[in-house]
Amino acid sequence: MPSSSPSYADKPGLFPMRGGCACGHVRYELRLPPILVHCCHCTACQRQGGSAFAINAIVEADAIAVVSGPEPKQPESGSQPAAAAADSLLPYFARLTLAMPCHALVGDGSGSKEKKQDDEETKPLAGANSTAKETGAGDDAATTTTAAAAGRPHLVTVPTESGIGQTIACCPRCHTGLWNHYADAGPCLAYLRVGTLDGARHVDPDVHIFTRSRRAFVAIADGRPQFEDYYPDRAAFYRPDVLARVAALEDRRAAYRADLKAALAR
Fold first, then answer.
1. N or C, fewer C-beta in 10 Å, the chain?
2. Pairwise CA distance, residues 43 & 50, whole Å
3. Residue closest to 229 by CA, chosen among 168, 163, 161
4. Average pLDDT for residues 202-226, to the nearest whole number?
5. Does the predicted TM-score (pTM) go above 0.85?
6. Cα(142)–Cα(134) distance, rounded to whole angstroms?
7. Which pLDDT band, with edges at 50, 70 and 90, does 262 fall under?
8. The dihedral of CA 122, 128, 129, 130: what is its sign?
9. d(C-alpha 222, C-alpha 51), whole Å
10. Percentage helix, strand, coil, to 5, in the chain?
């Protein structure tokens, strides 16, 4: 294991750590330290997050539990603890902005071509319902309405270069992405978006990947290993304290891979 990998052994009490979406509707608890944290500079992560990179904490899917919690909190920073969001003007701002249809922002507002485009963009993506069942979320998470009522994430599948896709768990109200499921482990592992943790500043990357598409203004100066593509051997970055957890996942991952292989063969 590279000596630069961070350790959580010297941070007792850091986990469980809570997190959630921007509006506070979905609150979750990360019950174990990450198996691995990577900073991904690929263009897919840039598009999904609207940023230059994404920091993902890889954990067992069942290490994340949706919980009831407080109102939304601003993530803590180095200079101040987390605080309740100041939202006294939020209802007024929402009334001004939510009343404006998206198609009115472009074109002449006639509602012909623009309205059709808006309708197309707001249709649910194909595969969202089936993915909810495959990941064990059940029928309750298959629709935004039910997920919103229950305070659970909504699952939606988006395409990837591999052709397999990835599933994103997001808030059904504010649509904040919370964690992803990728083809490598499907429902067995979750790639938690570190920025949604209340104490995100305590969780740093172990490695940088897909730096071939790193934005020119991003200077990587944390001393962590860097790879132009995906890392050649992810296990090389596992801390000793997570090896038993990784081994315990192997049977489930093998069963998932067999199911995926059978599906691809059809």
1. C
2. 10
3. 161
4. 94
5. no
6. 11
7. confident
8. positive
9. 19
10. 35, 20, 45
Token pair, residue 242, equals: 């997570």
b/e map of 154-174 (b: 16 or more CB within 10 Å)?
Answer: bbbbbeeeeeebbbbbbbbbe
70 burial via Cβ count (<10 Å: 0-12, 13-18, 19+): exposed
- Candidates 48, 87, 62; CA nearest to 196 is 48
Amino acid identity of residue 42, one-letter, is C
pLDDT digits (tens, 9 = 90+) for 132-148: 333 333 443 344 555 65
Q: Which amino acid, residue 254?
A: A
CA 50 from centroid of its chain's CA atoms: 13
* Both structure tokens of 224: 């962590």
Task: Name which residue leads in pLDDT, 228 or 3.
Answer: 228
Q: How many CB atoms lie within 10 A of CB 245?
A: 15
Provide the phi-psi class of 39: left if phi over 0, else alpha when psi is between -120 and 50, else beta. beta
pLDDT digits (tens, 9 = 90+) for 6-24: 678 778 889 999 999 998 8
